[in-house]
C-alpha cells in the first residue's frame, strides 16, 4: 500500500473516530427527546446524521490527501537524491522549508552524506594525481639508466650485425664472380639485416611510453588507436570529446583503455572495436565495445587480472565499472568516473 493511499485511509478513520466521539459527548450532554429526528431531519436531501458523517469523512479524506501528497513528494525527492548519489552525481540539496522538523533532519543528514562522499572522491582523485606525479618522477630517474642499457644493446647487437653485413657486402663486391658463394653471402647478409630489424623493433617497443606523457587523454587515445590500426587487422572507430580532468584521472582512464584493448586483442578475436569518451552531468564516461566472442561474466576466471585491475583503478577514483558480455555477441565495458569541481592547479592540461 502506497503512502498516499495509507494517508487517505488514516484520515478517513481518524475523521470517523472524531465524529463518533463528538456525537457521543454531545448526545450524553444533550440527549434528544426523539432519536428519530436524526434521520427525519434532512440536509441536502440526506439525513442529518448521514450528512454530518459524510462531511467529517470528506474533511478526513482531504487531510489525508494533502498530508500524504506532502510526504510522498518529500520521499520522492529523497529517493531522487539518493539515486544521484548512487550514480556518482552530486547536486545541491533543495527541500521544502515548510517540511516537518523530522523531514528536515533527514534532509540535513543526506546533505552531509553527499558532501562527505564528494570530499572522499576529491581525496581519491587527489591521491591518484599525486601517484601519477610520483610515477613520472620515477620514470625520469629510470630514463638515464634505460638509455645506457639501450646504448649497450645497440652497440653489442645491432651495430655489430650491421657491421658484419657491411663486411659481407664488401666481400661480395670484391668477389671473384663465384655465383654460388655470392648467393650464400647474400642470403647470410639478408638474415643479418632481418635480425637487426627485429632487434631494432624490440628496442623501439621498449621506448614506447606506457602511459600519458605530456599529452591530454584525448591525444593519447587518438595516438594509441591510430597506431593500433596500422599494426593490427582490426577496424577501429572512436568518438572522443575534449574536456578537462585531473592528471591522475586521465592516467587511470588511459591505463584502463590499454588494459581493455589488450584483453580484446588477446582474447576477443574481434573484427571491430569502438571507443567512446564523453562527459555527461559531472561524469566522465569511457566505453569500449567489440564484436568478439564474448564471455560469461559469472564464469570469469579467478586469475583474470585484467578486469580486476580495471575495477581497482576505477574504484580508486570513486567510479563504477559495468561489463556486458555474451558468448559470440561481443563485450561492452563502461567506466563512469565522477568529476567534482577541482582546483585549476590539479587539472591535467588545457581543454582543446
The level of helicity is 55-70%
Strand content: 5-15%
Q: What would the average pLDDT be, to the nearest integer?
A: 76
User: Topology as H/E string?
Assistant: HHEEHHHHEHEEHEE
Strand order of the largest sheet: 3-4-5-7-6
Structural class: alpha+beta
User: Span between N and C termini?
Assistant: 54 Å
What is the strand tally? 7
Write down the overall geometry.
rod-shaped
Radius of gyration: 37 Å
| Biggest sheet architecture | 5 strands, mixed
Low-confidence stretches: 345-352
Query: DSSP helix count?
Result: 8
Describe it.
Helix 1 packs antiparallel against helix 3 (48-87), helix 4 (101-173) packs antiparallel against helix 5 and helix 4 packs across helix 7. The protein has 352 residues and is an alpha+beta fold. The longest helix has 73 residues, at 101-173. The protein has helices at residues 3-29, 37-40, 48-87, 101-173, 179-207, 217-231, 247-268, 305-316, and strands spanning 42-43, 46-47, 235-240, 272-279, 283-290, 320-326, 330-338. Residues 345-352 have low confidence and may be disordered. Strands 3-4-5-7-6 form a five-stranded mixed sheet, with helices on one face. Strands 1-2 form a two-stranded antiparallel sheet. The protein has eight helices and seven strands; from the N terminus they run H-H-E-E-H-H-H-H-E-H-E-E-H-E-E. Helices cover 63% and strands 12% of the residues.
Amino acid at each position: 500500500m502506497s503512502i498516499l493511499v495509507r494517508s487517505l485511509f488514516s484520515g478517513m478513520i481518524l475523521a470517523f473516530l472524531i465524529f463518533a466521539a463528538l456525537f457521543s459527548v454531545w448526545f450524553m450532554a444533550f440527549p434528544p427527546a426523539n432519536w428519530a429526528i436524526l434521520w427525519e431531519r434532512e440536509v441536502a436531501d440526506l439525513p442529518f446524521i448521514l450528512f454530518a458523517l459524510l462531511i467529517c469523512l470528506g474533511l478526513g479524506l482531504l487531510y489525508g490527501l494533502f498530508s500524504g501528497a506532502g510526504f510522498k513528494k518529500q520521499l520522492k525527492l529523497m529517493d531522487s537524491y539518493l539515486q544521484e548519489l548512487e550514480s556518482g552525481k552530486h547536486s545541491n540539496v533543495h527541500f521544502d522549508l515548510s517540511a516537518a522538523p523530522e523531514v528536515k533532519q533527514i534532509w540535513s543528514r543526506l546533505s552531509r552524506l553527499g558532501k562527505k562522499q564528494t570530499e572522499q572522491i576529491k581525496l581519491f582523485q587527489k591521491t591518484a594525481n599525486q601517484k601519477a606525479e610520483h610515477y613520472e618522477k620515477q620514470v625520469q630517474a629510470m630514463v638515464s639508466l634505460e638509455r645506457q642499457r639501450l646504448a649497450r644493446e645497440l652497440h653489442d647487437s645491432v651495430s655489430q650485425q650491421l657491421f658484419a653485413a657491411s663486411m659481407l657486402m664488401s666481400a661480395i663486391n670484391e668477389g671473384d664472380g663465384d655465383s654460388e658463394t655470392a648467393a650464400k653471402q647474400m642470403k647470410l647478409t639478408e638474415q643479418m639485416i632481418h635480425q637487426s630489424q627485429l632487434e631494432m623493433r624490440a628496442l623501439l617497443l621498449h621506448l614506447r611510453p606506457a602511459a600519458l606523457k605530456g599529452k591530454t587523454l584525448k591525444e593519447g587515445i587518438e595516438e594509441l588507436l591510430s597506431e593500433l590500426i596500422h599494426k593490427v587487422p582490426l577496424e577501429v572507430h572512436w568518438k572522443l570529446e575534449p574536456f578537462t580532468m585531473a592528471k591522475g584521472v586521465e592516467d587511470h582512464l588511459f591505463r584502463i583503455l590499454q588494459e581493455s584493448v589488450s584483453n580484446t586483442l588477446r582474447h576477443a578475436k574481434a573484427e571491430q572495436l569502438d571507443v567512446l569518451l564523453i562527459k555527461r552531468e559531472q561524469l566522465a564516461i569511457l566505453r569500449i565495445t567489440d564484436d568478439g566472442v564474448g564471455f560469461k561474466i559469472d564464469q570469469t576466471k579467478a586469475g583474470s587480472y585484467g578486469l580486476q585491475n580495471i575495477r581497482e583503478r576505477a574504484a580508486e577514483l570513486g567510479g563504477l565499472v559495468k561489463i556486458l558480455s555474451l558468448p559470440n555477441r561481443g563485450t561492452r565495458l563502461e567506466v563512469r568516473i565522477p568529476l567534482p569541481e577541482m582546483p585549476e592547479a590539479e587539472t591535467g592540461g588545457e581543454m582543446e
